[in-house]
Write the structure tokens for this entry.
Amino acid sequence: MLNTEALKIKQKGVDIYITAMRIGDFADTHQIDRWSKDKQSGYQRALADNRIASAMKYLLLEDGIYPTSVLLNVRGEVRFKKAHDVASNIEFGTLAIPNESLPMYIVDGQHRIASLKEVARSPYF
């Protein structure tokens, strides 16, 4: 089970969750729905080594942070326990993603995630 504090926003009847996680907290709980000529239902292209290397250089030698988000999709059920309201359509609480709802699928951010995983394994980190 993956548990994290999150904001829950309802948009057009759909629940959207915003959270912050360390790469180690979800490194083994995601998957890429890869597009190919044989599998056109996927939505991610193949990883580009040069983009991963560039992102790693940015992390290790430049600013070292990603202020932008990655977008993950949970295809199964999740549970949210509200702690309090933040605004009229925003709640704060705990998001629980049961093991049977994992993996999460990377919609956007696959190169950022790959670079974070590589940097976390790096002797320089």
User: Anything to note?
Assistant: Residues 80 and 95 are 5 Å apart (CA to CA). The mean pLDDT is 89.
